[in-house]
Write the structure tokens for this entry.
Amino acid sequence: MALVEKRWFKVMIAIILFLLIVLLLNINKFLLVPVVVLLQTIFLPFVLAGILYYLCRPLVTFLVKQKCPKWLAVIAAYVAIILFVYGVVKLVAPAINDQLERFVANLPAMISTVMEWITYVQENRTTFPSFIQDAMLTASQDIESKLQENVGNIANGILGVFGVIGGFINIIFGLVLVPFILFYMLKDGHRFAPSVSVFFPRSKKENVLSILKDMDKTIATYIQGQMIVSLIVGILLLIGYLIIDLNYSLVLAVFGMFTNVIPFLGPYIAVIPALLVAVFQDPMLVLYVAIIMLVAQQIEGNIVSPNIMGKTLNIHPLTIIVLILTAGSLVGIVGVIFVIPLYSIVKVIVVNVVKIYRTA
């Protein structure tokens, strides 16, 4: 067999060509500016519409199986979304608003308590060991220097308000697009895979459809499962916080529900404000809050997630940690939220391509 016909040689050439394309694009970055702007504009509405699509698709599929016209099933999904939002606004929002108002009202007292602690420490710092005094002095000097360094950024921050306003207008415009994108996703989503497969040879069509089907299943499992799991975690936290009579229990439970979408780090982020509230309310509650969070995570990790999400993702915890830390450093919070589903999609593609390569 000639060298050019060997698989490893073809793979090596493909990698070299890919790296060459990346190098050329890096050299000619200006050519990508319109593409980057377009992606930034459509990213948010497509992501939101995609999440709603996977949440509404089971309802649409069920109604279609019951001989309901597709257009009527889509309208029913929109009605379900509207009723859900209305219910949240009428039932949950007032309670959250009331707790937030009480929190704002109590904030001066909490700040006063912190200032008293600081004053006490400053007045009695001579009673601490020398190494603690040195650490306190170094920390205060660092804070002072940081404040001085960032004074010059205030003007830039004021000027940046106009950029924030522009970004806010773009977000509003993007949110307006969501219902239209969602409509076509629900109406014509089943045509996506066949439309993509036509760009491949007939011999590869089945393989492409199989990969797209696995990707769709992975995304659907993650989004639908994550939403259900987060809701259950929020309910468990709310029940626990109400039992110990923790202040702002609903706000803290809702915060814990939303942070649960962040893999691995979510529970640690959720418990921080709960612990702070417990410290000011009653230091003994700190222990109870920690126990509640531990119990909720044990139930979620050992009972809820395995039964709802199964082993579709099947990602090792160490891999999750590495992915989150890397994505957080490169992209920020958006990367932390989306890195796991993106990795799962890439994993599905790689596994299927390797399987096809071995059987060819």
User: Anything to note?
Assistant: The longest helix spans residues 70-123. Residues 239 and 247 are 13 Å apart (CA to CA). Residues 151-166 have pLDDT under 50 and may be disordered.
